[in-house]
Amino acid sequence: MKRIISVLVENKAGVLSRTAGLFARRGFNIESLAVGETEDRSVSRMTIVARGDERTLEQVEKQLNKQIDVIKVRMLPAETATRRELVLVKVNADQQNRGGIIDIASILNAKIVDLSHTTLTVELCDRPEKVDLLLEMLTPYGIAEVARTGMVALQKGSEAIRMI
Q1: Where are the CATH 3.30.70.260 domain residues in the chain?
Q2: Intervals of CATH 3.30.70.1150 along the chain
Q3: CA 59 to CA 36: how far, in whole Å?
Q4: 137: part of which helix (H) or strand (E)?
Q5: pLDDT in tens, 71-99
Q6: Average pLDDT score, the chain
Q7: Which CATH code is given to the segment(s) 82-152?
Q8: 2-76, superfamily in CATH?
Q9: How far is CA 115 from CA 22, 47, 105, 123, in A?
Q10: What is the pTM of this model?
């Protein structure tokens, strides 16, 4: 099962390394990791996407809570989280296929952010499922490069993960 783990941590050197090490020691692969400052510059939010069974993920949550620099840990079910990911996709484009690529970008509300004689670069910020769809639709044209940010997520509604 894939889980989204939202972790508030002190914004200090080495916190990311220790957190990643915790996953590595347990043989977990981090599928996605995004880290950035919160509204309080002394606190960062890590959004970690990992796959594992319920028991193993509970252990990870407990181990994260034991870390000195960790303030709060919350598992976010996908259905109760607002999730976004940014992707840049450089696609091979010539005169014959350029229109098809532009049509796909338009339908998916993506932007063309760079244009050359041989490529188009498409940007999309949306749910991970829509990012996957964009990549699937562009694959037949020949993807030259992909850069994905990893998922960021917040719990929907008024409930929030705060320091207090």
Answers
A1: 2-76
A2: 82-152
A3: 24
A4: helix 128-138
A5: 999 999 888 899 999 999 999 999 999 99
A6: 91
A7: 3.30.70.1150
A8: ACT domain (3.30.70.260)
A9: 42, 32, 13, 12
A10: 0.83
